């Protein structure tokens, strides 16, 4: 199974427990479709791929997002669950109970000044140190355990500090992993004057306090916005309500 790197990590959690292979790609279905093609050429079976807010690839008949097959399979699942008197919400809760709650919160800021955007991301690369590369070590009191910067190709979780996914200096994208299971990615849009953020709290199975997890994520997001985005200082416009 495949997912883009800004999508929920729940497929990773399911893969770890069920034993199937899971990979992340860059954002955009072309990356998942191309990787699926490579895996098929290696005689692998590609069951599923998806990207947050974009779509689903169910099976390998169409190596792209396909709402027709996704709708058919969603209908089949709904019918199957209904025959067992199980609602979709109940099934989602069962998935969370089995593999861990995954709470997400995504949004964006609008900024038309490329110099401001570059300065904002460069500040994160030289956090507290203007000379050397030095990323933040915590945010909101939560320790940062790993940093991946796909603009520069840096990844602190790799032995050689080199990112596995392709990097590009033409766009900004930094991902922070936190000690409490949080993950936050900040990236610029390729088509709009937006700085997007994708955040998720990945809880361990057994922690079913959804409200508590939501508050924990909300607090972390608030800290990220204030400490990393600095919307007042950078004159960033919030996402319209």
Could you give the order of the helices and strands? EHEHEEHHEHEEEEEEHHE
State Rg: 19 Å
Shape: globular
Which quaternary structure do these chains form? single chain
Poorly predicted regions: none
Strand proportion:
15-25%
Total helices: the number is 7
Query: What's the number of extended β-strand segments?
Result: 12
| Biggest pleated sheet | 8 strands, antiparallel
Q: Distance between termini?
A: 34 Å
**Alpha-beta classification:** alpha+beta
Helix % is 25-40%
- Nearest-integer average pLDDT: 95
What report would you give on this structure?
The protein has 241 residues and is an alpha+beta fold. 36% of the residues lie in helices and 24% in strands. Strands 5, 6, 7, 8, 9, 10, 11 and 12 form an eight-stranded antiparallel β-sheet that branches. A hairpin with a 3-residue loop joins strand 9 and strand 10. The protein is globular and about 60 Å long. Pfam families: PGM_PMM_III (PF02880). Keywords: Isomerase, Magnesium, Metal-binding. GO terms for molecular function: metal ion binding; phosphopentomutase activity.
Summarize the structure.
By secondary structure, this protein is of the alpha+beta class. The protein contains seven helices and twelve strands. Strands 5, 6, 7, 8, 9, 10, 11 and 12 form an eight-stranded antiparallel β-sheet that branches.
């Amino acid at each position: 199974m495949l997912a883009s790197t800004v999508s929920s990590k729940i497929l990773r959690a399911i893969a770890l427990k069920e034993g199937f292979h899971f990979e992340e790609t860059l954002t955009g279905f072309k990356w998942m479709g191309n990787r699926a093609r490579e895996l098929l050429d290696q005689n692998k079976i590609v069951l599923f791929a998806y990207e947050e807010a974009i779509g689903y690839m169910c099976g390998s008949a169409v190596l792209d997002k396909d709402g027709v097959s996704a709708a058919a399979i969603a209908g089949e699942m709904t019918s199957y669950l209904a025959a067992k008197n199980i609602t979709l919400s109940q099934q989602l809760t069962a998935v969370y109970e089995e593999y861990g709650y995954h709470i997400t919160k995504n949004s964006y800021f609008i900024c038309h000044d490329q110099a401001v955007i570059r300065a904002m991301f460069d500040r994160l690369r030289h956090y507290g140190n203007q000379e050397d590369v030095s990323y933040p070590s915590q945010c909101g009191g939560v320790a940062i355990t790993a940093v991946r910067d796909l603009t520069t190709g840096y990844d602190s979780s790799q032995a050689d500090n080199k990112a596995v996914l392709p990097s590009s200096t033409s766009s900004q994208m930094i991902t922070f992993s936190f000690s409490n299971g949080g993950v936050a990615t900040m990236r610029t849009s390729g088509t709009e004057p937006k700085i997007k953020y994708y955040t998720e709290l990945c809880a361990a199975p057994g922690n079913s306090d959804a409200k508590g997890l939501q508050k924990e994520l909300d607090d972390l997001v608030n800290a990220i916005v204030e400490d990393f985005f600095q919307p007042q200082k950078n004159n960033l416009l919030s996402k319209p309500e």
